[in-house]
Amino acid sequence: MRLHRLTVTAFGPFGGTQTVDFDELSSAGLFLLHGPTGAGKTSVLDAVCYALYGSVPGARQGGGQGTTLRSDHAAPATRTEVTLDLTVAGRRLEVTRQPPWERPKKRGTGTTLDKAQTWLRAYDATAGTWKDLSRSHQEIGEEITQLLGMSREQFCQVVLLPQGDFARFLRADAEARGKLLGRLFDTRRFADVEKRLAERRRATEAQVRDGDTELLADAHRMQQAAGDAMELPALAPGEPGLAEAVLSAAAVARSTAREQLTVAACTLTAAESAQAAAARALDDARERDRLQRRFAQARQRAASLEQGAEAYREAQALMERARKAEAVAPALDLRESSEAEHRRAAAAEARARALLPETFADAGAAGLASAARRAAEELGGLDSARRAERRLGELLDERAGLDRQEHADADLLQEAEAWLDGWEETRTALQERVDSAQKDAALAEQLAERREPARQRLRAARLRERLAQDTDQAVERVRTAQDKALRAKQHWLDLKEQRLNGIAAELAAELTDGRPCAVCGATEHPAPARKVAGHVDREAEEHALTAYQRADEQRAEDERRLGLVREELAAASAAAGDTPTGQLALELDELEEQYTRARSAAAELHAAQERLRHAGHEHERRLAARQEAAVRTASRVGHRERLDRERTALEEELARARGSLDSVAARAAQLERRTALLTDAADAARAAEDSAQRLKDADARLADAAFRAGFETPQAAAAALLDNAAHRELQHRLDAWQNEEAAVRAVLAEADTVAAAREPRADPETAQRTADAADRRLRDAASAHDAARRRCAELDRLSARAAASVRRLAPLREEYDRVARMAGLTAGTSADNERRMRLESYVLAARLEQVAAAATVRLRRMSSGRYTLVHSDDRTGRGRSGLGLHVVDAWTGRERDTATLSGGETFFASLALALGLADVVTDEAGGVRLDSLFIDEGFGSLDDQTLDEVLDVLDSLRERDRSVGIVSHVPDLRRRIHAQLEVVKGRSGSALRQRGA
CB neighbours (10 Å) of residue 938? Predict the structure, then answer.
């Protein structure tokens, strides 16, 4: 990488535009960048870093990248910009970066923020022009990083050598060196390997531990199933030997369980035999006890029958008399029914006669019937009076209806008169509402016609504002295009002039001996003109002319677009007028509000018209109702008079028919009641006479039946007669005695029962207790056998699962052992890693060893062969080894720590280390050649001799065609180094002065 030119504008302390020609400074190989403190020496290096990576080194990067880089001395209208021309990987590139810029607004007051911009161009040597490659921040950053092969941190350490950092690197511990070397050599992939192995170790360890936990859980289940016959191993999950111990304990538990199962089977067989014998003995005892108790009960029942024999014979006699009395029962029933009927008829006659007047007390049935006929005939004569009475009621109801109609018509007339009195006011008010709604409707139509023009004016005003902005932008584009066309034209004219100045060489290139010259005609050409460096040929001129023509066409196109925009702006201004957009918007809003109100009011027109129409209909209805009420009042007068005359006639007729009672209905009710009472009394007297005759006949028939049945009197026959319940109860007693006697004789005749009675007394309770004990022993034996069988099955199942788990975990255990060994080695915790060196530290140690070897070459020259840098992988204290750095003193022959070097020794040692690190990082980055280096400060700590040696070493870098820039304010360096770049500090910002060799 070689830097050619750097241009900064409004960057850091530089308020204006400053340019650095690195080609001129690099021609001497060694140049000095100096200036007073705070003038901006480091800002030149920051500008190089910012141009390449878009950010500045270290702490100077700040928080807001764009605003912190801008110079406080710059004019408000000047934008910050950095342009770097360089050659990298054989390509000539130009990078231009503009950070975010808070510029003044073109219209109005305040500021606006422009985004950051980046350009990348490549130089086409064939065409002699720059070609645009990209304007994307991301693409440009990736392209630069890929070409350089270094990140920003690596670039700042390799190209911009900060001596303070390397002095600290010399004195730092292993951890600090590891962080710096890790950033430079990007050893994250080795750290990722360590992390990945550690993660895999933890993952496989967790899987093994989970598997062992599951295995131990199965072991606990086997212990629960085996009881005290199994002991668990005292090992935790993950410990070696756990699987073998669990499987061994499971085998012992299975063997013990099978022995217990055999013993339980033998015990069960014996218990089954004993239980069967006890059950048979219990059945025999129960049967003998049943037969003995049956025989004893039969003897007791026979004794009871003997005691009740007399009562049985009496019951038989009672049953015989009851059978004879049953022949007299129909006559008894007839006599009882006849007597009851006679009593009921006599009571009814007495009740009927009690309701009659005393004049009928001694009358017979015939007299009572005759009086009833006379009362019925008188009742029939009252039918005409009843009709007259009903008509009189109807007349009274009709007269009351006429009175109610008269009151209703009076209320109707009063209400109609009151409503009609206010008709004119109501009609006027409704008509006014209709007129108001019609006016609002007309106003809404007028406002609706004004709305669209107002909207068009507002749209035109808004278009006018947008076109005004577009016009400003178009003017700016036209101005830019004009400037670009002028520059392109000037460039073309310059190239054309250069070509004309060198046209002799171009013509001389076409000369041939013996052929006449196109200018002078001579055939000899003793001294033809030669092309000089930078000669412009026809192709270059034509390229410049083409660029000018394109720029001029773009200018014409931009001017044409500006004219179109101005025409549209004029049209919009004519349509909108001079009224501001805000005022037009307010006027439109006010018009819309008025239109909305008018439209809402106009919407009431139909309702108002309907109310007026309904009121007219109501007025007509009220007038008709008033007229109809007057007609009904006149007709009611004649109707009322006719009703009164008819009422008088009916009342006279009813007075004759009622007699002394209040009404005809009362007289008719009196006659109807008398007729009914007389009729009932006559019927009751005839029924009493008939029932007395039937009772007399029944007495004679009963006496004859009792005599034939053998009873002295009817009363004796009635006493011997039993009712159904008594008859059934007596027959049941007789049947029960006979059945009991037969059952007792049958039991006493049974051979088994008689034989059991001769045997000793049975004891079923003792046999039951013996059988219960045998059942308990059998259940216990069966439970023990079943438990032993389940224990064996459960142990077999759990053992098989444990064995399968052990087989499944075997590959995982092998992987865990292998990964754990690898993770321990890479992490430096394994016993096999004697120096406790991590993998990343090991790689960095190799890089540090390369850096130390490269730095020693220059350090020996700077120290006159005294010092040599060596890498040490010894452990420091209890820490890890791998990144130690020592210096070997040739004068004493001893190796010591770099922290023991003096200030000047530390400087040239760190300088040698920085140069060596630059070589190693360059090789690591793919061999990208670094032709430009910068060394920042530290030379003031050297004496004259050491300074000469250091400068000789730096000057030797030119052997590799490198240019080295020294950033320092040491005065002695100004006399020793002739190529200088001075930073001059002033009130209006810093400036750069360049002086060649």
Answer: 26
The contacts of residue 989 (CB under 8 Å, 6+ apart) are 13, 14, 15, 16, 71, 73, 74
- State the DSSP H helix or E strand holding residue 10, giving kind and residue range, or none if neither: strand 2-11
Location of structure tokens 């109310």:
611
pLDDT, tens digit, 9 for 90 and up, residues 492-544: 888 887 777 666 666 666 666 667 665 565 666 666 666 666 677 778 888 88
Query: Residue 895: beta bridge partners?
Result: 888
- Between CA 488 and CA 547 the distance in angstroms is 6
Helix (H) or strand (E) segment spanning residue 994: strand 991-995
**Residue 991: phi, psi to the nearest 5?**
-140, 160
Question: How far is it, in rounded angstroms, from Cα 516 to Cα 521?
Answer: 5
Tokens of 288: 């003998």
pLDDT at 722 over 80: no
Could you tell me how many residues make up the chain? Answer: 997
Residue 789 structure tokens? 């069988």
Burial class (CB in 10 A: 0-12, 13-18, 19+), 195: middle
For 877, which DSSP code?
T
Phi, psi dihedrals of residue 357, rounded to the nearest 5° = -65, 165
Q: What are phi and psi of 926, to 5 degrees?
A: 100, 20
Which residue has better confidence, 231 or 268?
268
User: pLDDT tens-digit profile of 932-970?
Assistant: 777 765 555 555 666 666 666 666 655 555 677 878 777
Render pLDDT for 742-787 as a digit per residue (tens, 0 to 9): 887 787 787 887 777 788 887 878 888 888 888 888 888 888 888 8
Helices 664-709 and 329-354: crossing angle, nearest 10°? 160
Residue 242, Cβ neighbours under 10 Å: how many? 21
- Tell me which H or E stretch contains 934: strand 932-936
Q: Which of 970, 958, 969, 952 is nearest to 932 (CA)?
A: 958
Phi, psi of 258 (to 5 degrees): -70, -40
Q: What is the DSSP letter of 89?
A: T
**Do the beta carbons of residue 598 and residue 448 sit within 8 Å?**
no
Count other Cβ atoms within 10 Å, centred on residue 365.
16
Query: CA of 984: how far to CAs of 33, 36, 70, 860, in Å?
Result: 11, 7, 18, 37
The answer for residues whose C-beta is within 8 angstroms of residue 493's C-beta and 6 or more apart is none
Query: Phi then psi for 662, rounded to 5 degrees?
Result: -75, -30
Query: Cα dist. 16→19, 195, 559, 566 in Å?
Result: 10, 51, 32, 36
Structural element, H or E, at residue 992:
strand 991-995
Query: Whole-angstrom Cα distance, residue 895 to residue 543?
Result: 67
